Amino acid sequence: MTRETTASSTRPVPPQLKWLTLPLLIELVSNAIALLTLPFAQDTLIAQLQTTLPQLGIENLELTPALLQSTLWTTFFILMALTLLLYFVREGVKDGRGWAWVMCILIGVFSLLNLPLGPFIGLALLYGAFQPAVRAYFGR
């Protein structure tokens, strides 16, 4: 059985499911753009650190190239993992998987903290996740 026949033959896809798939797609594209621009962020990172560290009372921290490279690589792998998570959650939502509904709620709650656009995405995810037709689609 393919993915299309599994979800569509069991239960119809509600139109309110777009309240989940569209915000997840926006987050997915946003993370992909962040991944593409990350290699060019080293100069910006250095400038932000040099202005922020004295405000925190840290005057004599030496920013070595190795420290900056490890910071960028760590950020890259975290963003890559989040991007893959968003992709698989979106696919799970389209298939009507129960774990994807739970992940949408978690992503929505954490998106509320991500300023400036995250609260809109988080509210859309939470609104869509608790629609009666969507809850029925996921078997809740």
UniProtKB/TrEMBL annotation:
Keywords: Membrane, Transmembrane, Transmembrane helix. The chain crosses the membrane at residues 20-41, 70-89, 101-130. This is Uncharacterized protein. It comes from Deinococcus piscis.
